[in-house]
Sequence to fold (170 residues):
Amino acid sequence: NSLRFNDDDSAYLSRTPSSAGNRKTWTWSWWVKRGNLWEKDLFGLRHPWSVSEWITFTGLNELYFKFWWGPENSYIKTNTQFTDLSKWYHVVAVLDTLNSTSTDRLRLYVDGQRITSFSSESYPWSGTEFYINNNEKHWLGWANETHGTFDWYMSDVHFVDGQALDPTSF
Fold:
């Protein structure tokens, strides 16, 4: 139940939902094994009006969960570097803008542990509605022509609409 993405083949997945889901609360869980240490986007959406929302490994190998659009930019970037090319990482990303605690509105878990130390962070306003889970094109393993495709493995992918879950749910 896994997929191999070879950047030489320009492989990626995309989906455009027929209707919008909950854009304030969702959980995305997946297993990923990196094939190289290039900066590549794992999952996201790019809207024509300069909206960019995605989860990526940066050029410094941190995990970056970010939302860039209009009046608000929200993000968390880990201090931890993910450089082990032989390891499968279980990553859970949670958006929960209805949470009363600002630092609980964006959450990242890796291998069952919540990441709480970030090199940079800016949390969304309460009740912010983002574009991920809208009826626009979403992708796995591709961002744009500049960033290209990813060399990686992916397995056991779950996107849960309207719920903020922790890793024990998977």
Observations:
- Residues 80 and 120 are 12 Å apart (CA to CA).
- The chain has a mean pLDDT of 87.
- The longest strand covers residues 25-34.
